[in-house]
Design brief:
The complex is a heterodimer.
Chain A: H1 2-38, H2 45-75, H3 89-100, E1 102-103, H4 105-132, H5 134-141, H6 153-197, E2 200-201, H7 209-235, H8 238-246
Antiparallel strand pairs in A: 1-2
Chain B: H1 4-7, H2 10-18, H3 22-34, H4 39-43, H5 72-81, H6 89-101, H7 105-109, H8 112-121, H9 132-137, H10 140-157, H11 165-169, H12 172-183, H13 197-215, H14 219-223, H15 226-232, E1 241-244, H16 254-258, E2 286-289, H17 323-350, E3 372-374, E4 380-381, E5 390-396, H18 401-409, H19 412-418, E6 422-428, H20 437-444, E7 451-455, H21 461-465, E8 474-478, E9 484-489, H22 494-504
Parallel strand pairs in B: 5-6, 6-7
Antiparallel strand pairs in B: 1-2, 3-4, 3-7, 5-8, 8-9
The chains are: A mainly alpha, B alpha+beta.
């Protein structure tokens, strides 16, 4: 019972704090927009302080609530939840294949059908995705669309419209992924049935050194390329460019235009 | 195996349960080392020393006053923006090296902005757990990487206009650490004049990211950070990170369930190697890969219990370490402490930065009269040489894209409108770093612009005497008697200058 009360207390506190923090965020955003819309240029520390004065009480209340929450958790700690398992279907399938061996008979055909389904859906998805990316690519390749020397409203609007086919492509990829997940689950069920019926023939364990070797080669190649790039970059002035840019305030990066 | 936390009683138990984990200590260490120039917060200036050749591994804006190294993402965008002149080998090499050595271990241990999000997430509100939607949304950072970090800077580079799109329109580190650090200092009140729609947008975005981080674990890292997207590509082959011992794995899924990132399996491209999965694994199949000196490979000591608030493998509640490893760890810890102490001493006491210059160039004062060397002809020029005429003096820097833009679009209009009645003196920083400025001027400001190009005096004294720090451009207008009537830090427009000049003529 005591645990239940503590949980309830924490929940109530959490909800109040959440509302307070959201209110603070909204107040800050509204104040910022109000400063911008007031047209009171150029800004100064005093004018900005005056605008944010109204929000300060809310901010102090939020800070006090956060400190109060820390005290609450120290005095009445919430018990940690037991972790729950979340299974990854593809990993499970691979484990089945590694441990059990290979399927025989109708089960093998069923599993192969599922694999073909997934391969086909991925191919179709890739082809459609490439087709949908043609329009955004053409848009990006035409530099006249970016002839205005900054990202203004018109450019951003046109950019978003040009990316609509790409967004459809991403949605398509998502559904393809869902389909593949479903197919993997069905294949896992086939494996489980096959193991129950004894329709599996064990295969010799593959050496773990094969994937290790691939990783070793990848590391070696990438490491060499990285070092070569750094050396070339130092000699062609790339390192100097990094320094020269970094020692001046990037007013754009910090929002000063 | 005994649990050391359970055996302690009272205050000692509380202390043992609440002391910072080793991961948190490493995060704080990295944040302090990356921002070792603490005096920058005091004097309101950024570090301008040679250490900024190097890129910090995490997201840390180099316009932050305390930043001791460059930001890899900013460097990448600027390098891509300059691909019309040279290919960005150096930055690519740095990113590949960091990715190969650390992968997203950087996100979990070395990134200052990641630390800020971890601390914000500790605020005790109800949390939004990961689900299928967040897993899908985690791929959005790759879209940001491709569009904002790669494509847009490249496209604008083809038009000779550098645009670090992610830094300019999205990066919260720049707004919080850069703008926050600079604007909070009294000596930078002039920068307030540059605030406008861009800052409004970035401030709103920053508030959203901070609020998001309170409710959603690593809100920015999971959905928006292109640096995490880059490092994630190297996670499988990186030297540091998490590894799974497949024969021991029983597919219970507790690791994925315990993880707050959107992983499919341990060590994939979303894994930031925080190690929370290590203690929940019932078979001890998960461990850190890499050298044992800093973090032991597998320190699982049975299942976590409800009293064990800290489930950090770096606290190794399990098997005691061999003596050699303990000694090696002590040596490494001491070296790192010396490195940090040395860095703090160097940045804050030894490297004092350029000599301070007395600032007198305010509106209403006579303009300081420094003699500057001309670029295009032999000789010098001083502001007093143009007495009797209205004089516009613009301070610029070759790597300041806003400076170059206004010198190409706004300032030529002055000569077109007023001819020889107005003198335009364009002053470049005396820091040239081997760049051929006259050649640059010839290539980028061709035609009859009416500019008198010259180089600032030593220590950028003229620029600093007018209140300039390390933010360009600065424009000053003098009346016929050499008195300053207009001064602006940041970009200006011809219309604004015309309203001043018309009043003087």
């Amino acid at each position: 019972m005591a645990q239940e009360r503590i949980k309830k207390l924490h929940l109530i506190y959490g909800c109040i704090l959440s509302l307070l923090l959201i209110a603070v965020a909204i107040a800050l955003i509204v104040s910022c927009l109000h400063i911008y819309n007031s047209g009171d240029r150029p800004y100064s520390p005093t004018s900005i302080s005056a605008h944010f004065q109204s929000v300060s009480l809310l901010v102090y209340a939020a800070i006090a609530a956060v400190i109060g929450g820390i005290a609450l958790h120290l005095i009445l700690p919430l018990p940690a939840d037991r972790p729950k398992g979340v299974k990854d279907d593809l990993a499970m399938l691979r484990h089945q294949q590694e441990r059990a061996g290979s399927l025989t008979g109708a089960y093998a055909q069923g599993a192969e059908r599922k694999q073909k389904e997934r391969r086909l859906s991925k191919c179709i998805c890739c082809i459609l995705f490439v087709l949908l990316m043609i329009m955004p690519s053409l848009y990006f390749m035409d530099t006249d669309h970016f002839s205005v020397a900054d990202l203004n409203e018109d450019v951003i609007r046109a950019l978003i419209y040009s990316l609509v086919p790409a967004i459809f492509g991403l949605i398509l990829s998502y559904f393809c992924k869902l389909f593949c997940q479903q197919s993997i689950r069905q294949e896992i069920d086939i494996w489980k049935e096959a193991i129950k019926e004894g329709c599996v023939s064990p295969t010799p364990q593959t050496s773990a050194s094969v994937p290790d070797r691939r990783i070793f080669y990848a590391r070696t190649i990438i490491g060499i390329i990285a070092l070569v790039f750094i050396i070339v970059g130092v000699f062609n002035g790339g390192a100097m460019d990094v320094l020269l840019k970094a020692i001046a305030i990037c007013t754009e990066c910090i929002g000063l235009g | 195996m005994e649990n050391k936390v359970e055996n302690k009683k009272g205050f000692r138990a509380w202390l043992a349960a609440h002391r910072p984990s080793k991961r948190r200590i490493i995060q704080l260490y990295a944040a302090l080392l990356t921002n070792a120039n603490l005096k920058g917060f005091g004097n309101g200036q950024i570090y301008q020393g040679n250490a900024k050749f190097a890129c910090a591994p995490g997201l840390n804006c180099y316009s932050c006053p305390a930043a001791s190294a460059s930001c890899p993402l900013g460097a990448l965008q600027n390098a891509l923006a300059g691909t019309n002149t040279k290919l960005p080998y150096y930055v690519f090499g740095i990113l590949m090296l960091y990715g190969l050595l650390f992968g997203r271990w950087i996100c979990g241990f070395l990134c200052p902005f990641g630390l800020i999000q971890d601390l914000l997430h500790k605020i005790k509100t109800p949390k939004i757990k990961k689900n299928r939607l967040t897993r899908t949304a985690s791929y959005f950072k790759y879209v940001i990487l491709v569009v904002m970090v790669v494509i847009l800077p490249l496209i604008y580079a083809l038009q000779d206009f550098p645009l670090p799109a992610f830094c300019k329109y999205i990066c919260p580190s720049g707004t919080l650490l850069g703008a926050g650090g600079l604007l909070s200092n009294e000596s930078n009140t002039d920068l307030f004049g540059m605030l406008g729609p861009l800052f409004t947008w970035k401030f709103v975005l920053l508030v959203v990211f901070i609020l998001g981080a309170v409710f959603i674990y690593r809100f920015f890292c999971r959905f928006f950070c292109p640096l995490g997207a880059i490092y994630g590509l190297f996670n499988k082959i990186s030297f540091l990170g998490m590894k799974l011992d497949r024969p021991k794995c029983v597919d219970c899924g507790l690791c994925v369930g315990q993880c707050e990132m959107d992983i499919h399996h341990v060590g994939d491209h979303e894994c930031i190697s925080c190690g929370k999965c290590v203690n929940v694994c019932p078979t001890g199949a998960i461990s850190y890969k890499g050298p044992k000196i800093l973090l032991a490979p597998n320190e699982v000591g049975g299942r976590p219990n409800s009293k064990q608030i800290k489930v950090d493998p770096c606290d190794h509640p399990g098997t005691p370490l061999p003596r050699k490893t303990k000694i090696a760890r002590a040596i490494v810890a001491a070296s790192m402490a010396i490195l940090l102490a040395g860095g703090l001493v160097y940045y804050n006491f030894i490297d004092k930065g350029p000599e301070p210059v007395e600032v007198g160039g305010e509106i209403g004062n006579a303009c300081p009269d420094y003699e500057m060397t001309l670029y295009e002809t032999a000789g010098t020029i001083k502001p007093s040489d143009t007495r009797g005429k209205v004089t516009v003096i613009n301070f610029w820097y070759i790597y300041c894209s806003a400076c170059v833009k206004e010198l190409q679009t706004e300032f030529p209009l002055i000569h077109q409108e007023y001819g020889d009645d107005v003198e335009v003196i364009v002053v470049h920083s005396n820091q040239e770093y081997g760049v051929d400025i006259p050649e640059y001027i010839q290539d980028n400001f061709p035609g009859d612009t009416g500019y008198t190009h010259c180089r600032d005096v030593e220590n950028e004294a003229f620029f600093k005497s007018l209140g300039g720090t390390s933010a360009w451009p600065v424009t000053v207008i003098l009346d016929q008697d050499g008195v300053i009537v207009y001064k602006v830090i940041g970009s200006t427009t011809f219309e604004e200058m015309r309203s001043v000049i018309d009043g003087l003529l």
